[in-house]
Specification:
The longest helix is centred in the middle third of the chain and has 34 residues. The protein is built from 17 helices and 13 strands. α1 packs across α5, α9 packs antiparallel against α10 and α9 runs antiparallel to α13.
Length: 499
């Protein structure tokens, strides 16, 4: 007879083999042509703009600083009519200008002539009003930056204005879904995410994401196995200490959301660069937290607890409750961040509480909380130990992501999941004491959780997917020069006065 423990071990072995196949698939697939073609496009565009518009850009820059007769409307017409991708060339640096519109926010200074100083994520801009609620960037702050830039080759990224130094070398990164363009000092100035593909390419990119995830799972298996071997050699109070440090470590990862960008881009980026694309996105935090603790508890269950030290069981229960809280809290937090709940001008207190997106948050919150509570109550009835329950959560999340790689579910799926939950819970309950139904119980509980996670991520999957596809941190370093900052304000004031 196959016991639960033996089945779980075989299940993990099967999962590891599954990810190994992904590794082989990725190695056999050649991405060099696609990657090099995109980088080549970037290089051609860069060279074309540098040569064709350098004179126009130089003239504009000189006019801004020297020719006081140049009027503001002439400047904007010159840029728009030429369809210039870059508009300033100074000190051998090519300054790019994009035509994306930005919403009216963070206006530091504005006058009656529809011109103002606009504070964007990467710096300050001089802008003019194009419509009632839209602004167009026309003058970049004269402060040097070195960061990755979003453009038509980046999908799901935030478009912004930046500059490339002329000593850029175009190279391809080793990651299969990501390329970088670096300057001669080795700093990455442009990141390209390869998601602009045909359907077959998109499927391949999904596979590569699960390969990336599987690689981390394999690393966790090895590291945590060594971790448990170490714990077995320690006294009980050291084991408790390490469990506590696990929780602190996870809180530090989660807390990086609340650390100012300037700290993230210095201390954190230097030491966390290999895993930042994995843990920096909102949705991945939930996955990373669950994976880390799940693997810890899986190997941690091999630690033998003496009969007189059963109080350690209380620590395990606490940690499981802690995992439950993290999963619930951060799933809700992901929804909050994606929806961006804000009071609108026509909202009052009652209207806000009954707004459609808020009501949807209520329903999702209730579904998530009730689901985890039900599963926790059924642990004893199903003869499932702590580790197995957490492994259900982990693998069901993976399978739910696989669902959404290829399927877009209709709204009625909510009702179907609710009814399916009731059916599966009844089946699990009535087969709990029959050893012949071990596989069925494991499979049904996994599918049940997968369906529930599918509901959770349904409405925001497109956003999650973009973040899952290895988005690199958008800003690496910031070098602020106060002297150039004052120069910018003087130029902006001159343009304002000339107008």
């Amino acid at each position: 007879m196959i016991t639960i423990d033996k089945f779980v071990k075989r299940y993990f072995i099967a999962a590891a083999s599954f990810f190994v196949l992904f590794v082989l698939f990725a190695k056999l697939h050649n991405y060099s042509e696609e990657k090099n073609s995109i980088v080549k496009k970037m290089q051609e565009e860069y060279n074309y703009q540098h040569s064709a518009f350098s004179k126009t850009a130089t003239n504009i820059f000189q006019a801004l600083q020297i020719d006081s007769l140049l009027r503001w409307d002439n400047l904007s017409t010159l840029i728009n009519d030429k369809n210039v991708g870059c508009y300033i060339l100074k000190n051998d640096s090519l300054w790019f200008w994009n035509k994306n519109e930005i919403s009216l926010q963070n206006i530091a200074w504005i006058d009656d002539d529809n011109t103002g100083i606009y504070h964007f994520e990467h710096g300050w801009y001089f802008g003019y009003r194009k419509s009632e609620q839209k602004w167009k960037i026309v003058l970049y702050k004269i402060i040097q930056y070195d960061y990755s830039i979003s453009n038509q080759y980046l999908q799901g990224g935030e478009e912004s204005t930046g500059y490339y130094e002329t000593n850029i070398s175009f190279s391809v990164d080793t990651l299969a879904t990501f390329s970088t363009i670096k300057n001669n000092e080795g700093k990455a100035v442009v990141g390209i995410i390869h998601t602009k593909q045909t359907r077959s390419r998109t499927t391949t990119t999904n596979v590569l994401f699960y390969l990336w995830l599987g690689g981390w799972l394999f690393i966790e298996l090895i590291v945590l196995r060594l971790y448990v071997i170490l714990l077995l050699r320690l006294k009980i109070y050291w084991r408790i200490t390490f469990v506590f440090l696990d929780i602190v470590f996870l809180l530090l990862i989660i807390g990086q959301w609340f650390i100012p960008d300037i700290l993230l881009n210095t201390f954190w980026f230097e030491y966390w660069h290999p895993i930042l694309p994995f843990i920096n996105s909102r949705g991945m935090v939930v996955l990373f937290v669950s994976m880390f603790l799940i693997m810890t508890f899986y190997f941690g269950k091999t630690i033998k607890i003496p009969p007189k030290q059963q109080e350690i069981r209380k620590i395990e229960v606490f940690c499981v409750s802690f995992v439950q809280f993290l999963l619930i809290f951060f799933i809700l937090f992901v929804f909050y961040r994606f929806y961006g709940f804000t009071l609108k001008p026509h909202d009052n207190a009652i209207g806000f509480l009954f707004r459609r997106d808020i009501i949807e948050l209520y329903s999702v919150s209730g579904l998530v909380i009730s689901f985890f509570l039900l599963q926790y109550v059924l642990l004893k009835a199903l003869y499932v130990n702590t580790m197995q329950y957490l492994s259900f959560v982990f693998y069901s999340l993976i399978f739910s992501l696989l669902f959404f790689s290829f399927i877009k579910l209709p709204p009625l799926f909510y009702v179907a999941v609710f009814l399916t939950q009731i059916l599966f819970l009844l089946i699990l309950k009535f087969t709990a004491r029959d050893p012949n139904f071990i596989f069925l119980r494991y499979l049904l509980l996994t599918v049940l959780m997968a369906l529930t996670f599918s509901v959770i991520i349904n409405n925001r999957y497109s956003i999650l997917k973009n973040e899952f596809q290895l988005q690199i941190v958008h800003q690496l370093t910031v070098n602020r020069d106060k002297k150039l900052e004052r120069k910018f304000y003087s130029v902006a004031e001159k343009v304002k006065n000339d107008k």
